Amino acid sequence: MKLFPIRVALASFVGLVAWGTTDSLRAQPLLNTESLCGPGEGNIGTNWISLPSDGILKTAEDLCAAISPTPSTVSQQYPDGTGLYTWDCVSTCSSTGTIPEPGCTTSACFCITPGEAVSVVTSAPSVLPIYGCDAAVPIDIPIASGPGVTGSLVSVPFHTFLSTVNDLGLWFGLPTGITGGTVVWLDCATGAATVCTIGTSCQFAPIVPGKAYRLRVPSGGIYSATNPVACLTPSPPLATCPIDSLMVSWSGGDATLTWSPPDPACTLPLTYQIARFDPDCIRHYCVHCATCSILGTTAANTFTDTPPLGTWDYFVSVVGGTWNSTGTTQCVDRDIMFGLGCP
What we know:
alpha+beta, Immunoglobulin-like, 6 helices
């Protein structure tokens, strides 16, 4: 049995359940409140913004509605070379490609998918609350090359194990050296762009949370990697009744679960609930997991399940307590995951 880690306090879990999943704004946590530079000469007021791999902003129209005051334009520069899409937040989409973006059926201009960042030109100093979640999903970055092609604008997770812009380029496999790939970032207050060639002295420039970066290579290609999300261990208080002793043994098609009671700091009645998960759902926990099942409750310290064919993980919690364990290898908050819905 393999268990994947997760994190957040019990209070957050209770709030998510109370809100439900119909209000997408509240069904996901607030990652950041981005302050956007006001407009000025040249690129002053052009803001390159990272977005979570699963957030509530899915289209150009969503982005315009979320920024206050409404910006002048919002743009997607990913993938560059097949069409730079710009929406005026009213009715006009401009692009060198097909309008709307191919495969995007919910917008008159462009859709936002994992790994894509956006460029926002403000009408005044603005604020953008960013709700969502970053998951360890595969990210494919198509980068075109040629005259006038500037590269692809990409998002970086708000919590990442990458430290520098050089780390970012290497993670996605950009070539190194004087003629290698570059990472570019923009200062929205001055309009100045900084260009870092991978493997040179700019390798020490730190990644700034919320800032998007433009990747470019001398020749085009697809640059792929897993979204570089940092492991954030939940460390739940003992009073929230974490279960650390779950064991699963198999006999034929039956899975027998056994566990020990939680720490005495847990004062809740020792009634347990059992959940079964597809392991892939745990990896992509930012969205509702359709294969999640609460199998039942018991006052015993054992439970037997006969699951359908497939690969499964199991969790046990005290009713009213946390789904998280105190293990240091857990990276994902199971309370948030269950808050997104589990029938």
